[in-house]
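It is time I had a proper look at our fold encoding. Can you supply me with one protein entry, sequence and fold together? It will help me judge whether the discrete encoding reads sensibly. Leave the record below and I will have a look:
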Amino acid sequence: MPDGRPWYYRPRPRATPVPAGKTTRWPGALPGVRMRRLMIILRDISLRRGSKLLLAGASVTVQPGQRLALIGANGCGKSSLFALLTGALAADAGDIEGMGNLRLSHMAQEVHLRDESACEFVWRGDGELARLRDELARLETAGDFDAAAPLHSQLEEIDGYSAERRATRLLQGLGFADDDVQRPVADFSGGWRIRLGLARALMRPSDVLLLDEPTNHLDLDATLWLQDWLQQYRGTLLLISHDRDFIDATCTRILHIEGGELHAYRGNYSEFERQRAERLANQQASWEKQQRRVAEIDAFVRRFRYKASKARQAQSRLKELERLQAAAPAHLGSPFDFTFPVAERTSDPLLRLDEAELGYGDTRILCGVELQLRPGSRVGLLGRNGAGKSTLLRSLSGQLPLLAGERLAGEHLKVGYFDQQQLEVLDLEASPALHIRRLDEAAREQDILNFLGGFDFRGDMATSPVAPLSGGEKARLALAMVVWQKPNLLVLDEPTNHLDLEMRHAMELALQGYEGALVLVSHDRHLLRNTVDELLLVHAGKVQAYAEDLAGYERWILSGCRAQDRPAAAPAASSRREQRQQAAARRERLRPLRKAVQRIEGQMQEAETELAELQDQLADNTLYDDERAAELARLLQREGELKIRASELEEQWLAQQQELEELEAAGG
């Protein structure tokens, strides 16, 4: 049959439909699948890792369908709490209720090398689908078609015949190119394998979805796509993230791990900041009031303890002092405190690209690039995955030679370049202090240690080998090495990956005070919004000024490049008459395409309606009696014809729609 089912398969009569209002659908959900709506209760959880106490007496209740962000400093226990929920780790005390009957999907942090294609790896995230297809392949290979027929019915019930299409859409949304879908998993680098693990988790039908820093290896476009996907997810979402805009858009409750305690806040991250500030202010005021009372008691006791007339009162004050609880002061300070030192010398302009062509070998990615960077320039780059943002950054830093044109560097240009590959070239046997020492042999040891302290490398951590450090700690060290060199041009490619919210805030403050030029690519919209003054769009082989703001770019990405939300370049000077003529010509070119799309949509609706009516007839049990064999054969033949017709129309619609969107996006 045309949809992948064999000739011997006979559709079963449809099951009694699920009553209205009893089924919840979400991305990845299947027809007729019920979402199990159970509370998850964590009661008095205590957890240690080695000698470190991560959680002590933590309790929280998660209601069905809630959307929670789990936040806290690196190493506070967020991933360990996820491990408790998945059963990979046992609590030292307390218990968890409600997880046993829920379908759980968890994003793997590491994807091992495999020979299967990216698409197959993703759809195999649906364990029931994979089991059915493997068993079906075994039975059909053995020629046992009678036993195989019921499996086709089960596959149809879980929408198994669309698995490849659904997996492909997930991969495309996360930034994979069309020709990547059939590439072996082993061909992809570590960051892209993490994306594969994310797609696999989204593919798996679930009541509870656990995502541990899902945006770490995504660019801005893929982050926006994932944000939109999660907004439609109707299960319970628990998310570890250090991207405040992403949290604001996807979560309605915050769980904050701090000092071994788990605090719950209503609202998104912005609301959490306000509520926590109020709580800490109250805590600080209470502590200060208590300290004043302690000082009063202490002064009274010192003055009157040995006077007979006041001895009884002094003893009473001492007992009061013993009863006072030792309320800890609020620790509001961040462990990070650094600035970008002023460069010793600078030039104006620092760097210029004239008619530059950028790419690799014979492959030109960007053409006609004109860009000038002066002291104080603050540029953010936008653009789809693969458009050439990283190519531009590497060319600016001097790591990638131009294919044509000129790169004119100022006499005193000093570039500080950061990307995730900087982490891979760290010497794992050397300490953070030694890494800085190698950059500056003349530096005083104490100056190096003081500097590293601003990046929270203190004590033995500053003088011990890098090997056991986490990804976030290695990223901090790589950034510290850039800062130490006093660049007058900063070129930063996704600098916030693996960094927690406190470090991101410290970086934001440091960049705001930086006096040199900055070129930044980041999926962290909050960082972009607060550190750059100018946006450039890398699109269709060009680099051009972007006239709108980040909100406009988000709308364009999420709308699929519709004409009204296409990327807005700085308008060229032209007369109103010319603009009207161009608009009229564009409408003439678009009109036949729009009519073709509408015509195909009408034909698709007709085919779908007839197919639905025919499948209702096939659900009649009496149709499978021997005396109605000829009628059954005719209906099955027509069903096959309609499905082929529907598939052909869909392909035509996709081709016409793509051509229409490309023409609209290109301005006609």
User: Anything to note?
Assistant: The longest helix spans residues 576-618.
